[in-house]
């Protein structure tokens, strides 16, 4: 008797991004306001990061609300109905409720039926990680369309007294619809991690530690600080410049694309100096438009790439059908890079 054969799951031959959308909070925090918190100057902040202002979410602009707004725009651009979405992936490090995953609420609010929905935590590489998972789901046959969201409320994790990070982080959401394509629209994702550098970017303390400290000093008048993000700036800079340029080149090579064939370079909006150094390392032609959304948005971690992509398309800097090199990198340390066709 022959053994029964499991039927393979098959999907589209290729996938691509069909739509992108973003949400930027209403409140603008200019550098002049940051100077109320730390001893610095507008000139120093601009020269060190390229940031002139950032957006911070208000009480009603939750992780879920910002995600729903961004996703709605991506769905509309893709020209599909929410019920056609077969998976919802949310990349975030700032949804502070451990469980359930915020993706399930977002899927329900959007009308995605019983689509599988889950969160991933890959910091500033989160969108790239989500894109790789979505590509596999579409080509593996488990979904026709997948919604990938990068969303952060990093203002909730910002220590405004920390001179090294108070000016960096912003809030926002970016979303993309990944679906079937007749031609390759997402190149091989080059992704990975280096846990030996886990402390280079990290949360100052675990939640249980913070609560234990709060209980211990209750009634004594001693201040217990809320957990916040800390970063060894120089270590991050060196790693991003020397190692991530190599990863970006690997993504180009894997896609069979050269730098002069790109229609856009969309790196994680971490720091303008990092972006400039990567441009030099990649020998990127001056004719290739480069995302510089960080100037008005700040570092929005998992949201930064889709937000920058949306802005470049809306402004006409990049065009639908162009090839774009995207790369995200951050706490973990983690990274993900790929060449994609713009929606």
Primary descriptors:
10 helices; 5-stranded mixed β-sheet; fatty acid biosynthesis; Peroxisomal Thiolase, Chain A, domain 1; 343 residues; alpha/beta; 4-stranded mixed β-sheet; EC 2.3.1.180; ACP_syn_III_C
Walk me through this protein's architecture.
- This protein is α/β, with parallel strands linked by helices and 343 residues long.
- 33% of the residues lie in helices and 23% in strands.
- It contains ten helices and 13 strands.
- It has helices at residues 31-34, 42-49, 63-78, 102-110, 126-140, 207-217, 233-255, 272-282, 294-297, 304-315, and strands at 14-23, 27-30, 53-56, 85-91, 117-120, 145-153, 171-181, 190-193, 201-203, 229-231, 264-267, 323-330, 334-341.
- The strands form four sheets. Strands 1-7-6-4-5 form a five-stranded mixed beta sheet, sandwiched between helices.
- Helix 7 packs across helix 8 (272-282).
- It is globular.
- 49% of the residues are buried.
């Amino acid at each position: 008797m022959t053994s029964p054969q499991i039927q393979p799951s098959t999907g589209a031959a290729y996938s691509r991004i069909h739509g992108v959308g973003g949400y930027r909070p209403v409140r603008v925090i200019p550098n002049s306001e940051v100077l109320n918190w730390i001893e610095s100057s507008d000139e120093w902040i601009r020269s060190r990061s390229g940031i002139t202002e950032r957006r911070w979410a208000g009480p009603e602009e939750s992780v879920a609300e910002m995600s729903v707004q961004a996703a709605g725009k991506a769905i509309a651009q893709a020209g599909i109905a929410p019920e056609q979405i077969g998976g919802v992936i949310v990349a975030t490090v700032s949804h502070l409720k451990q469980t359930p995953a915020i993706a399930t609420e977002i899927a329900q609010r959007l009308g995605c039926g019983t689509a599988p929905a889950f969160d991933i935590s890959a910091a500033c590489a989160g969108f790239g990680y989500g894109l790789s998972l979505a590509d596999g789901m579409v080509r593996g046959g488990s979904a026709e369309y997948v919604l990938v969201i990068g969303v952060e409320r990093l203002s909730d994790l910002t220590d405004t007294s920390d001179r090294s990070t108070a000016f960096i982080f912003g809030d926002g959401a970016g979303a993309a619809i990944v679906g079937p394509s007749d031609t390759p629209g997402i190149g091989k994702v080059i992704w990975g991690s280096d846990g030996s550098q886990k402390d280079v970017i990290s949360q100052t303390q675990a939640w249980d530690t913070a609560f234990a400290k709060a209980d211990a000093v209750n009634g004594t008048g001693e201040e217990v600080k809320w957990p916040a993000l800390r970063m060894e700036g120089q270590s991050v800079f060196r790693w991003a410049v020397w190692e991530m340029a190599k990863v970006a080149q690997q993504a180009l090579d894997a896609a069979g694309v050269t730098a002069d064939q790109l229609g856009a370079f969309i790196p994680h909006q971490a720091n303008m100096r990092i972006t400039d150094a990567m441009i030099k390392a990649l020998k990127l032609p001056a004719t290739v438009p480069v995302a510089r959304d960080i100037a008005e948005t700040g570092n929005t971690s998992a949201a930064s790439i889709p937000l920058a992509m949306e802005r470049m398309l809306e402004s006409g800097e990049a065009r639908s059908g162009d090839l774009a090199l995207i790369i995200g990198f951050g706490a973990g340390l983690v990274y993900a890079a790929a060449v994609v066709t713009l929606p």
